[in-house]
Amino acid sequence: MSVAELKARHVAATETVNSLRERLQQKRLLLLDTDDLIEVVAVAGYAKAHGKSSVSFGATDLVCCRTLQGHTGKVYSLDWTPEKNRIVSASQDGRLIVWNALTSQKTHAIKLPCAWVMTCAFSPTGQFVACGGLDSVCSIFNLNSPSDKDGNLPESKMLSGHKGYVSSCQYVPDEDTHLITSSGDHTCVLWDITTGLRTSVFGGEFQSGHTADVLSVSINGSNSRMFVSGSCDSTARLWDTRVASRAVRTFHGHEGDVNTVKFFPDGNRFGTGSDDGTCRLFDIRTGHQLQEYYQQHSDDEVRHVTSIAFSISGRLLFAGYSNGDCYVWDTLLAQVVLNLGSLQNSHESRISCLGLSADGSALCTGSYDTNLKIWAFGGHRKVI
Question: 362-367 and 258-263: which strand pairing?
Answer without folding.
Answer: unpaired
